[in-house]
Amino acid sequence: MALALKETFSEKTNKALGVNSEDAKLTLTYLSLAFIILFLGGTLGLLQGLNRAGLLELPSWLNYYQVLTAHGILLVVVFTTLFMVGYFYSGVSHTLGGLLPKVRKIAWTALGSMLFGVALVAATVFMGEASVMYTFYPPMQASPWFYIGLVFVVLGVWLAAFGVFISAANWKKRNRGQHLPMFSFFAVGGFLLLFLGSLGVTAEVLMLIPWAFGWTETVNVMLSRTLFWAFGHTAVNVWYLVAVSAWYVAVPKIIGGRTFSDTLARVVVILSVILNVPGGFHHQIIDPAIGEGIKFMHVFMSLSISLPSLLTAFAMFAIFERAGRKKGAKGLLGWIKKLPWGDVRFLAPMIAMITFIPAGAGGIAQTNNQLNQVVHNSLWIVGHFHLTVGVTVALTFFGITYWLIPYLSKRELTPKLNKLGVIQTLMWTVGMYLMAGAMHWVGLLGSPRRTSFSTYGDHATALGWSPYLFSLAIGGTLLFLAVVLMVYIAFHLMFKAPKGNTEFPIAEPEDDAAPTPQWTERWGLWIVIAFAIISMGYVIPVVDMIVNAPPGSPPFRTW
Amino acid sequence: MKMHRAEEIWLVISVGVLILSMVVTGYQAFAMDMAPPSHKETIDPQKVDQTAPFDNPGVFQTEEGKYEVVMTLQIFSFTPNKIEVPAGSEVTFTMTSKDVVHGFQIAGTNVNAMVMPGHIQKITQTFEEPGEYLILCNEYCGAGHQMMSTTITVK
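YS: structure for the whole thing
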């Protein structure tokens, strides 16, 4: 009882005095590193874009494929993970009344493990020992230390995940019968999905390490690839879920609105956790060794992932319309004018959401088997994930930065910095649309992904791609400038912006909102269903790949 | 959870679109024989040169207007290369990899297939339009990946 009182007290002081300084330090460290990684990854992206258009020749000690491997891993895994952990931990601290000391310790250990892992991975890539891309498909074999680095990254992610689970369980014990606050509900869902998604790749990496040391001679190529994609696609959907959490929790508050439906938001989290993992299979639609029937079943499994997004799309526009009408908007579309377009904390996530309309539609199209065959491994795909991860996820993360960093550093977003943020958002948007637009179009014409500049012996077809690749390079250059601006803004908000009070925006439910049903809290059931769906997707093909496997492949080092 | 009427309509329409796309995809795959390449034969990846038919790669006429191209993919080339077929031919490519994962794509057509070591992949295309088509590897396979290409000439 005394303990419970003390805890409630700490929750109250947390609300009154703002963030616990030790929790603030934790998140600010994660975010600083995330933005440093964004700068490195963005610089590599610029080099790549210029090379791909034939405008820049890269030196042999830092060739295109090293740059591409590092760009992919740094931005799609490291930047996103660091941001996710930093952001979710700050929100867990805020909504659950401060982090427990042991959870804080877990989060620092997680950071150490991830950084050690990333250092190993980056070192092997830059030494030319691991030009194997983000997907590291065997039988191409990197240095064993590359895979060991990945193990430490995964270990860090798991520690961070369990820190959040412990926080949530502890809060539930102290607040029996109450719903976990929505922000923390998203954090639990996001980390649970990341954990489920990482199981496959962990199994793969544990097979690859003894092979890379030469203790086993051959490797099962199809199995490795399948286990990778159980992670590869789930990961990006985790980053998307992180972005969605800010749309439901923070954005309504920023525009002066209320949450649409607490239950709906929780259903979106639950569906995302349950449905996502088998989605990775659509990366293998034109693979051998998988039958047409299984591939067709996976069209269904992949399309089902879009269901939570369709629910979100409706909810978001409903929130905007209600908020606009409350401010006196008239007519069918008058509410659009009432939205705070000049406020970067709204503008950035709003463009992120709007972009998910074409990006999600493209995803739905390309997961249908025959349409996938048209664009598989073409630049279309690269365009697709630069819209989803590069705009929808990244711009939402930037939008979060404008309030999260000043909240933690006890500073304020000034009108001047807000303006700079608007400029950054527009530069990013124009750059990404130029680049991703060109990638989509030239991909349809047949230009492949993951290749350095090539005219294929001056073949007329390939020469016809040049203007699009030039547009790609212009977009990439604009994006690099936008990265520099964003990193400047982030550190300015951390160390230079004027002192002040910034709130952590948490939207409130409507006054007449229906209570959220208790079944939303049944995590045990969701995990069981998730495993059932993962089994539906994977048991038959994986068993087939093991039982009917050809003799394994010896290692190759082809770079 | 009580749903707004408009939300119900929205969900019915959007789920309807998803189902329609599945029906079209399924119909094309199973009734029109347009399913993506999914061949299931295997081969010892270290004995490709000694295993039929890959011990003798080349272009073979199987019947009037039909050809089979038996092809190996290896860093950073296709064997055979510079293929020629008459216009209107139906060509089946039977492929495997001698080393790492490769991709087989003919730019300007829907021919696109992953080619893995240990697995045999097949894909069929009818070439109606004469011309010199660009064949390229679309899966990163190493330092010379950007040079891995050849052509198929349709006369």
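YS: worth flagging: The two ends of chain A are 64 Å apart (CA to CA).
IM: good catch. Also Chain A touches chain B through 76 residues (CB under 8 Å).
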